[in-house]
Design brief:
191 residues; mainly beta; Porin; 8-stranded antiparallel β-barrel
Length: 191
């Protein structure tokens, strides 16, 4: 279900690419985003927040043809209160730290607005901690994103992105499902 809306958004945006002109805001960029993400998993006997936190920092370059490349780091974390008979026993946390490389396409809509498409690969270190029991796994995952930059002046933009991310890991506490997340981030970008 999460993948369905991400693919629809990506296909719709790609349909617009053929009619687009080159990006108007080219050169080095730095992005900082904060948001929320919903995972595809649930934890038995846990009082859970449905949305985890998401933080991302990206550095990259955009060229005049609209394409760009970036590298970045992101952190996605979930916290749960594990209960038995309605009483808190311990806390469970799941944390995903990812270093990724992404290809971008910047599609100008007006002088102050660009749509953004992103696809990338990331190396993730996933950690789950239940009380003093800790498990870690390293893996490779995928990031797909569709968003917009709203420029305030020549070099500063407010950004938003809907994203879908696979982490390539599965833990016993997630019933051995491969963990994915879909979310929304808001942030700023300097070019």
């Amino acid at each position: 279900m999460q993948m369905t809306w991400a693919l629809r958004a990506l296909v719709g945006a790609l349909a617009l690419v053929g009619t687009a002109e080159a990006a108007e805001h080219e050169g080095f960029f730095l992005g900082l985003g904060l948001g929320g993400a919903e995972g595809n998993f649930s934890v038995d006997n846990a009082k859970e927040a449905d949305v985890g936190t998401y933080f991302e920092l990206t550095l990259g370059n955009a060229w005049s043809n609209g394409f760009g490349l970036s590298g970045g780091v992101s952190v996605n974390a979930y916290a749960y209160e594990v209960q038995a008979f309605g009483e808190r026993i311990t806390d469970l946390t799941l944390t995903f730290v990812t270093i990724d490389a992404s290809a971008w396409y910047f599609l100008p809509v007006s002088d102050d607005v660009e749509l953004t498409l992103r696809a990338g690969l990331g190396s993730t270190q996933a950690t789950t901690q239940l009380g003093n029991i800790k498990a870690q796994d390293d893996s490779v995952g995928l990031h797909l994103g569709f968003g917009a930059d709203f420029f305030v002046g020549e070099t500063f933009a407010l950004q938003t992105e809907l994203f879908y991310r696979t982490y390539g890991v599965a833990f016993a506490v997630t019933e051995d499902e491969e963990v994915t997340a879909a979310g929304l981030q808001l942030g700023v970008r300097w070019r």
